[in-house]
Amino acid sequence: MDFTVFSHLRWNFVFQRPQHLMTRCARANRVFFWEEPICDAATARLEVHEGAPGLKVVVPHLPPRLSGEEMWRIQQSLLRELLGRNREHVFWYYTPLALNFSRDIPSRAIVYDCMDELSAFRGAPEGLRAAEKELFKRANLVFTGGRSLYESKSLQHPSVFCFPSSIDREFFAAARYISSEPPDQAYIPHPRLGYCGVIDERIDSGLLVALADARPEWQVVMLGPVVKINTSELPTRPNIHYLGQKNYQSLPAYLAGWDVGLLPFALNESTRFISPTKTPEYLAAGLPAVSTPIVDVVTPYGLRGLVHIAETPNQFTAAVEEAIVSKRSTARLREVDNFLSASSWDLTWARMDAAIQHVVRNQTNINLERELIPIGEIVSGD
Asked: pTM of the predicted model, to two decimals?
């Protein structure tokens, strides 16, 4: 079967949920990963290149200065050209706006993998809420990237299922045994407090400043691209280090040199429904972690004592102090490993694929609670 994936994130951006799931999907299916257009061409065309075995990245190149309607119309023509007469494919949406050029093209099934509340992000495109409402009407399956998103979306569609951020355990657990240092981190003293991910309006800059000022001897390492904010908005202190975006394969080597993993998220509309993938990644790497009270971190990680939860700068500083001490606890690592043993991206994809195959075979929506896997297992198991 073929999958056409419509994404607001580019394949070579931070390696996260879409990449984890679609590399696994591509092991048994052909995957076309359709990115948002680049307006740099004299004549509209598609650039197609291999992103992973079995997965083609498809980039529309359009002429500049087109109206919105023209962009949708041209992309629809390019999509029809790509798919040809093939109707044996699944449409998988990360961005509901892709309906504007794909709604009239038939498919075997429609999946909406809702990984974030995109309408709450800075610079959210006009029409996003309306497009999502339409997608709910058309989709056979809706997957959510966290518990809070599931609670928000579950009343809007009969087949909404929660698949929270999962983990490539063995890959990140390798950090526990790496002793060599990446050159751009080797010079930074300890203790090192690290963050890995997109750096945008969701990061609490004031919290980072307060943390850096409270303990000048602590070094804050920030890995990841700066998106949707000006670099002038980034907090600057001698002990805050921005090392830029790193290749996914290199991440364990960086995490191996940290003493604490940070989740310094602001508490605002853009973080209300997030389920940070880095939470289990920090834990698998053997790091204690400190987070602001993000709902999907508090439950389950905070309630199980696996992540320190702190809201104010003073509380956060105190929690980091506790976390630095707890890094040496073998009991903590046993609890972490026991919890993470029930989670993997392989298992998450297998459950998603089972639901999709059911829809394709029966051409109907499903109720996983009755027909496949109890929803409680999905929510808590991943």
From this structure: 0.90
